[in-house]
Design goal:
The complex is a heterodimer. Chain A is α/β, with parallel strands linked by helices. Helices cover 42% and strands 20% of the residues of chain A. About 3% of the residues of chain A have low confidence. Chains A and B meet through helix 1, helix 2, helix 3, helix 4 and helix 7 of A and helix 1, strand 1, strand 3, helix 10 and helix 12 of B.
Chain lengths: 403, 626
């Protein structure tokens, strides 16, 4: 029978605490980057994204790293929860001594990380989160964002859609911030060009829980001439299937956000919608040299084709390396100064992080969906440069807190 | 008019799909009294297996598709058998709700297995051969497959009714529902009956998933998407009533179909509004009957709780000392993790006060945690109060919410009560999620950082240690105060408590307010720890986390929730940074703990370890048999 007395307990406790506190020793010379994304929350997008940054990381380190030091990425899963993302961010900054944070998929997670970055005075390169608030009404000087925001993509689509004769419009979007702001941005962009439009119906299915039959029926009942869709993933598949069966899309134009991205188009296989105006990523048809090199390297490394997430992950890592290289240091203030206005070479071409709102000018591919060999593809597409769809620095000043 | 008919049919089709899953859950609960969280996982597995089988079978023979659906359901039934025989059978003697913990472990394991086996991409199965197109009904095209579904629901209902009314097996199952011990005394093997019932339930869930194949994409979040709604259907219908489940499914399906025409956002909260209204008006659901008094004693406390013995107090004192000197050794990250653990320990204790001490199970305890967080955040951002003042707004708002919700909840008992708490929590969540102008919607409230003196990790750690630690000790005092004793009396014997003049409703309402206030303190601290508040502090996963912590530690102990919170939270935080498959590992660990400690960790220590330690010195074990 072992009897533990108080002193032994105290000693054991102290030893345990000390062991926990010691943690791993600081890395000798690599530059540590903290990376957070919703790997278990939305794997369809985030796993290709991880492949993307891993490819870029390997290439950068093959070339000798940055500032003569290799880059090292410490990656964490936030499970789609802002609270867990903050725990991870704190671990990366306080314990792993990362020089900056990158990543994020969901808008609310991105906003939480951005606020954390401002509080802890750490640089945060948001890769994915699409909400306008991230760089505008809740923007801060520590946060930069790579992907074109909701309102940029909505404006790209509205530019084409406004040319159609359709006057009666209906919208369907998931009932959360992304869906709501996408519909608002699309309506605003359309209103500028077409004051004569009529919005006859709107549907707000719960994300991942669309009851597609009644939703399609409710839209058909309003008899719109055109439909703006924001649903994606599993909801989109169900919406498309029900809509096709019930003839919702017959004789109606459809504008659809993100639907051309392989992440969302490919699962539809032979049932991919035809003739929809979408934003997306036609990786199979892009001729630009930078993209060709990326495509070849990606396919060689992963034996799979890239998704849009892969490009975003790849470009985000390139941006991180470029910023550190330009700053010549891993000091946060110097990196912010370097990041403002920096031009980064990405597979989609050069991209500028604007000094005014820290939004990158990355664009999106806009085109029509079609079927080819039993698969959904984008045709008649063009690359819409993000710079053309961003407000001027003066307007941005009014949008951002404290200018 | 035509539109109304079509929309009604749409509602019926959705209802059938929901009913198939719900009836299995209802049967399992009715007979086995198991709150089966894994039912959604069975549904998801049914869909994935059907997807995998459909392709090869369709190539192999015409009509192979129609073979794939029942085969998938059978495969899920086998998985169900495996789960029942290897896991659940071991813990039937555990306290009420403990099986919930085991099924939660299965949910986690299946989530990662699905990701490993089928990959991250959504899968769209083939359309049903022969029923690809639409049938013209009143001039509108209506999917032919949906007509099949509309018929399938009532058909399954009829089949189950015949099974339970007209077969010997069905009669035995109903008898076991009424009185397990008597059935066993009559020589009927209860374990075999239970295994069969669980297999039937899993089969129905698998079938429910499989028939979704032609309608919807198969994806890895299907389990959580369906499970809560299924519980709602079962409870609204009345526990154990299959016909009630069908009625409830139709009610929800049709209300949703028409609801979204008038108010397109309604599906976010409709199910919970309906459940709240039904339970307030009809406390046993639409067709529920009062539960037969169970003779099983496993749900009761076999020994009354006592204040901590002197020796244990020493351990607590040493622990407090270690925690107090921790900042000397630990880095800021570790301190933040410990702060979070202590916050969740307080949260778990407040839930335990309601569940363990008050005997009122709560599936919606996140409501008070979230109200606490939002109360503090709103007081800071909207009213401009500093942290010191804003922190009080949290518990006040949480207590107010608990007062309102508790008012209605204490009229109910058992799972009905638990589900009503869930309904209120979800309604609160929906308000926070939808009310953009005040709560910021799902973009949350940012900039809720502590005052300057408390920003450093060490300072906030001490603040948390003081507040959360103090809160836990105070809650403990309540248990042994006259109020706590009255509450325990109401829990253990409502009749006797009533006979000696204890006002049960008043005690239980006050218990809600106390538990809510302390959960609110935890939520308020959490808001300042994270610096921001999002609707997920009100959401179901947090309520489930709370349940897991309490059950893991041991429902019948007072120290259990603290230990459970520490074990679960530390596992979550550290595993998530070590491996991608943290859900798989946590699931396995939970199941291992459930099997090893059928009364929870602290429950096990109290029962098996503590008697050894408490033996007075000099009293050596006797050698040989007495």
């Amino acid at each position: 029978m072992i009897i533990i007395d108080r002193r032994q307990l105290l000693l054991a406790g102290t030893a345990l605490a000390a062991a926990l506190a010691a943690g791993p020793a600081g890395a000798a010379e690599s530059i540590r980057i903290g990376e957070i994304n919703s790997y278990s929350g939305l794997p369809a997008f985030t796993l290709p994204y991880r492949n993307g940054w891993q490819l870029a990381l390997a290439q950068i380190n093959e070339r000798g790293g940055v500032l003569g030091r290799p880059l090292e990425v410490i990656s964490r899963d936030d499970g789609g929860k802002p609270g867990d993302a903050l725990t991870a961010a704190n671990e990366l900054v306080a314990r792993e001594n990362v020089v900056l944070l990158m990543g994020g998929f969901f808008s609310h997670v991105g906003l939480a990380l951005a606020d954390f970055a401002a509080q802890k005075r750490t640089l945060y390169i948001a890769a994915e989160p699409l909400t306008d608030a991230l760089v505008w009404e809740k923007g801060n000087r520590y946060t930069f964002r790579l992907r074109p925001s909701v309102s940029m993509q909505a404006a790209m689509l509205a530019e084409e859609a406004a040319k159609w004769p359709a006057k009666r419009w209906a919208t369907v979007a998931p009932n959360y911030e992304y869906g709501k702001s996408a519909v608002a941005a699309f309506k605003a962009a359309m209103a500028k060009k077409r004051p004569d439009l009529e919005w006859v119906a709107e549907q707000w299915p719960t994300q991942n829980k669309i009851d597609a039959g009644p939703t399609v029926q409710a839209l058909a009942q309003a008899n719109p001439e055109a439909i703006f869709n924001v649903t994606f993933g599993a909801d989109l598949a169900q919406f498309v299937r029900e809509g096709e069966t019930r003839g919702l899309f017959k004789g109606r134009e459809v504008v659809s956000l993100l639907t051309g991205e392989p992440e969302y188009l490919d699962p539809l296989k032979g049932e991919a919608p035809v003739g929809w105006l979408v934003t997306g990523y036609p990786w199979y048809a892009i001729e630009a040299t930078a993209h060709k090199a990326f495509l070849e390297a990606y396919q060689a490394k992963f034996n799979d084709y890239p998704r849009l997430g892969s490009v975003v992950g790849y470009a985000a890592m390139q941006a991180v390396a470029a910023i550190i290289a330009k700053a010549g240091s891993t000091d946060t203030e110097k990196m912010i100064a370097a990041a403002e206005g920096i031009v980064v070479e990405t597979p989609l071409g050069p991209v500028t992080f604007r000094a005014s709102d820290h939004q990158a000018t990355m664009g999106a591919y806009v085109g029509r969906t079609a079927l080819k060999d039993g698969k959904g593809v984008m045709v008649d597409w063009h690359y819409a440069d993000g710079a053309a769809y961003l407000p001027s620095p003066e307007e941005v000043k009014k949008l951002r807190p404290g200018g | 008019m035509d539109f109304l008919v079509i929309q009604f049919l749409n509602g019926l089709a959705s209802a059938s799909a929901l009913f198939l899953v719900a009836c299995g859950l209802s049967i399992i609960f009715g007979v086995m009294r198991i709150v089966n969280f894994a039912h959604g996982s069975f549904y998801m597995l049914g869909a994935y297996i059907a997807y995998t089988l459909a392709g090869p079978l369709m190539d192999w023979m015409p009509g192979g598709f129609w073979l794939a659906l029942p085969l998938a359901a059978l495969a899920v039934a086998m998985i169900g058998a495996l789960v029942e025989i290897t896991l659940l059978r071991r813990i039937y003697r555990s306290p009420e709700l403990f099986q919930l913990l085991a099924t939660f472990g299965i949910v986690l394991i299946v989530q990662d297995l699905v990701l490993i086996l089928w990959g991250p991409q959504d899968r769209l199965g083939p359309r049903a051969p022969g029923l690809e197109g639409a049938v013209n009904i009143l001039g509108s095209p209506f999917p032919a497959y949906d007509l099949l579904l509309i018929g399938l629901g009532p058909l399954v209902l009829l089949g189950l009714t015949l099974l339970f009314r007209r077969t010997r097996w069905g009669v035995r199952v109903r008898a076991a529902t009424q009185d397990r011990e008597m059935v066993e005394a009559l020589g009927i093997r209860q374990d075999r009956l239970f295994t069969a019932v669980f297999i039937l339930g899993a089969f129905l869930a698998g079938l429910g998933g499989a028939v979704q194949l032609p309608r919807a994409a198969v994806h890895h979040a299907m389990d959580l998407e369906i499970i809560v709604e299924t519980f709602v259907v079962v409870v609204v219908g009345g526990l154990g009533s299959v016909a009630g489940a069908y009625l409830a499914a139709v009610l929800l399906g049709v209300l949703n179909a028409f609801g979204i025409v008038v108010f397109p956002q309604i599906s976010l909260v409709l199910a919970f509004l309906v459940m709240a209204v039904v339970l307030v008006v009809r406390p046993l659901g639409l067709l529920g009957r009062p539960e037969a008094a169970s003779r099983s004693t496993t749900g009761l406390w076999d020994t009354p709780i006592r204040p901590m013995a002197r020796g244990r107090r020493d351990i607590v004192f040493v622990l407090a000392l270690v925690l107090a000197v921790l900042p000397v050794f630990a880095g800021s990250y570790l301190l933040t993790v410990f702060s979070e653990v202590m916050i969740f320990a307080l949260f778990a204790c407040s839930l335990h006060f309601l569940m363990g001490v008050g005997g009122m199970g709560s599936f919606g305890h996140a409501a008070y945690f979230g109200l606490g967080a939002y109360g503090a955040a709103l007081a800071m951002t909207q009213l401009g109060l500093p942290m010191e003042a804003a922190a009080f707004a949290g518990p006040v708002l949480a207590a107010a919410g608990a007062l309102v919700f508790g008012w209605f909840c204490v009229r109910l008992t058992g799972v009905y009560l638990a589900m009503l708490t869930l309904a209120f929590a979800q309604i609160t969540w929906a308000i926070a999620f939808q009310w953009d102008s005040v709560t910021g919607g799902d973009n949350g409230i940012l900039g809720v950082w502590p005052s300057a003196w408390a920003t450093s990790a060490a300072a906030f750690y001490y603040l948390t240690l003081l507040v959360a630690g103090g809160g836990i000790l105070l809650l403990r005092q309540f248990v042994f105060a006259p109020f706590g004793m009255g509450l325990r009396a109401c829990r253990d014997s409502p009749l006797r408590a009533d006979a000696i003049g204890i006002d049960r409703a008043a005690h239980q309402r006050l218990a809600f307010v106390v538990a809510g206030a302390f959960a609110g303190i935890a939520g308020s601290l959490y808001a300042f720890l994270k610096g921001s508040v999002f609707p997920d502090v009100l959401a179901i996963p947090l309520s489930v986390d709370g349940l897991v912590m309490v059950l893991l530690g041991g429902l019948q102990t007072l120290t259990g929730p603290v230990v459970g919170a520490a074990v679960y939270k530390v596992m979550r935080v550290f595993l998530a940074s070590w491996t991608d498959y943290w859900r798989l590992i946590i699931g396995i660990v939970i199941i291992a703990l459930v099997v090893a400690f059928p009364r929870g960790i602290v429950g096990y220590i109290q029962q098996r370890i503590a008697p050894l330690l408490d033996r007075p010195e000099g009293d050596q074990p006797k050698a040989g048999p007495p």
